[in-house]
Structure formats: structure tokens, C-alpha cells
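I hope you will forgive my troubling you with a question about protein structure. I set the record out below, with my sincere thanks for your time.
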Amino acid sequence: MTTALPAPPLAPTAVTALATRHARSAEEAARLHPDVVDALPAAGFARHFVPRRWGGRAGGFTELVSAVAAVGEACASTAWCCALLAGHARLAAHLPERAQAELWADSPDTAIAAAVVPPAGRLTRVPGGRRLTGRWAFASGIEHADWILLATLEEQPAGPPAYRILLLPRQDVRVHHTWDSVGLRGTGSHSVGVEDVFVPEHRSCLRDALMTGVREPDAAPCHRVPYPWSPRCCSARPRSAPPGVRWTPGPRWPRSAAPRPTPACSGPSPAARVTSTRPPYCWSRRRSARTGRRSRLRRRSSPRRRPATSGTPPAPPSC
């Protein structure tokens, strides 16, 4: 375990300069340029959420968003990988202590990829751990990762399947080059496959640990944040626009404006207009098949319409 001084703050200047220079090559090669990858450890993204006992910073979300926004002005793919490089280390901080030691005992700058949503694959329990087989999509940064986090559903003798997170070395997975998204090709978010790979017991944890956050009294604030909130904190849009960019919102109809005038010939006469017997919106409750909880939804109803007058239909208007 590392007992060094706290890690320095994020320094995205060098990465931003290199990302500006190699943005086009990253888009064409569908992976970050090697010079950009080599500059990521010095920038501090990989260690930003690593616990301090392993030499990490255990930093905050505000600092990360500001640094990622600075890199994003140069290259969107590099900024995406920087954000996930930090976020995946935060997920790995929920693994057992032995797995954390394998990740960060030598260096807190270990690069971790992940494909934890949605879960996939098949688990088989064996003595000392589990054997994993399957295929996962959207493993951003897998081309320059040292480890990868994968998720699968583990069948239980009683009750619903357990959502389990597993840690595997990069050499245990096979990369399928399936990613070809315009503007973000450099992220290398390809699919990965695993064929009957052994995962020791200490390299896995349940998603419940991520949903509640680390509960130890000395845990850093960034590790106490439940998992559903972390993507929102890591990908929030900056309040100010980048230099040279001006936000131009679309046109909106003023709330206090007077109603628009009605044309002289706008359809059937008032006597022939139809009315609704119930409001255009109604509240309903639906039970979720996955969680079993009831949710209150507002949905658009199909109002029953009837003519305001009976008898023969009115004649069309004359213009």
C-alpha cells in the first residue's frame, strides 16, 4: 500500500495540446494516438478517483468536469476517454481490498475499461471463483486499458439473479472491432468477448455495493456517491461556453404573449367543433416488471370526441 503524499491536481494542459494535434488521426484510426495515451498518466485522470491509500487523489467531480471540458475543446474522443478513465477507477474502488491491491499496489495510474451496462454473459461457479463466458458492447478505451470491468447476471438458488461486477486482465478478453461512430471513433468503444475465463472470488462484487456507495467512516466523499448519480456528476454540461463559442437557444413563444389571431377561414364553424369528454392528460400507475414498484406516469389519452350539435353534419365553411 502506498503511503506517499496526496496526488497533485489534474493537469490537462499537455493532453489538450496533444489532442488538438492528433484529433484527426484519432478519428481515422478509431483509437487515441499513442502520444495522447502516454500523456494521460501525467495528467492525473486515471488516479483522480483512486483511494488515497493507494496513492490516488480521491478528488471531486467539479474538478473532473472542468478538466474534461477543457480537453473536449480539442478532441471529443479524448475527453470521453479521460472522463471514463477516472469514472472506472471509482467503480473499482468498491472491489475487495485484495483486488484493489492488484490494481494499484504498483501504480495508481492503472487504466481500467468497463462494460457494465447492460449485463451480459454467463457465469459458472467453480471452486475458488467463477468461469465467465459472453460478449459485451461499448467497452470505451479498451485499446489502451490494463484491466476491464464486466457485468453479468448470476443465477441464484432462490430469488432473482444477482447483478455481479467482475474484474479481468486485458489479456483475458478478445476485442471485436465493431465501433464506428462519427465524431467519437477515437474512443474505441468496441465489443469484447470472453471464453470460459476463470475469475477469482476476490475480483468480483455485487452491484449493490455500487448502488449504496462505500460506507466506511473514513471513505472519501467521491466514493460515498451512489453509482446512479456518478454518470450525471461526470458528464454535466459546463455552465459557460468554450472560448469562441456562443450558445444560441432556439426560438420560444413568450408566455405572456397574446393569443395568436384566428384566420378568417380556419376550419369548421364554432357550432361544428368537437369537444372532449375528459382531459387531454390523465395519471396512471404501472408496475415495473423488473423492480416490482409502481410508478406514477402521465400519459396522453385519446379523448372521446362527440359533435357539439346533433342531426345532420354542418356544411363546410365558405371562404
